[in-house]
Design brief:
alpha+beta, SH3 type barrels, three-stranded antiparallel sheet
Length: 177
């Protein structure tokens, strides 16, 4: 047993010696020449760092200025003049379930009549059927249902015109078959 361990050690020492001796052969001459060439090169010029510009400090004095940490115009809504007839979405209103979906993904699939009032059946992308009537909201453009008829749901949306104002747009969901 002792003989076996010592013979394994001797074999390993001889193997490592042979491998180390092989590394010092003539195959290393080209590597040594390359290292000498790199060392002989002249050192290049390093560009200096760009000059740091000093930023002019600004002291904020409240005065007539708006709060820089509030959303633009949110704190001054009561003082803002009415633009384009005062049309704007009611952001304080609690959103309804169907306002999560784009209007193009909603489909009118049926109609109910209860106490002489029509209710529309609308299916969303996830397959859920919702019952809606006039006054409910749907779509992502603040669409409010004006009327539910036998063939369609008529609504008016409040959309941005790209200039900071809002306008109303009439649209409808037709009964799909």
């Amino acid at each position: 047993m002792i003989f076996r361990h010592s013979s394994i050690r001797v074999v390993l020492v001889l193997l490592v010696s042979v491998l180390l001796a092989a590394c010092n052969g003539p195959g290393m001459q080209d590597l040594q020449q390359y290292v000498e060439q790199v060392k002989a090169r002249s050192a290049g010029q390093i560009e200096s760092l760009p000059e740091v510009k000093n930023v002019e400090t600004f002291i904020y004095l409240e005065g007539e200025r708006r709060d820089p940490f509030s959303l633009s115009g949110q704190d001054d809504q009561s003082d803002a003049p009415a633009v384009a007839g005062g049309i704007s979405p009611d952001y304080n209103r609690r959103k309804e379930e169907l306002e999560r979906y784009p209007l193009t993904s909603l489909k009118m699939v049926g109609l109910l009549e209860q106490n002489e009032e029509f209710w529309g059946l609308v299916v969303a992308d996830d397959g859920t059927i919702h019952r809606v009537h006039s006054g409910n909201y749907l779509g992502q453009d603040h669409g409010q249902i004006l009327r539910v008829t036998e063939s369609r749901i008529e609504l008016v949306e409040i959309v941005a015109d790209g200039l900071g104002n809002y306008r109303e747009r009439s649209t409808f969901l037709a009964l799909s078959e």
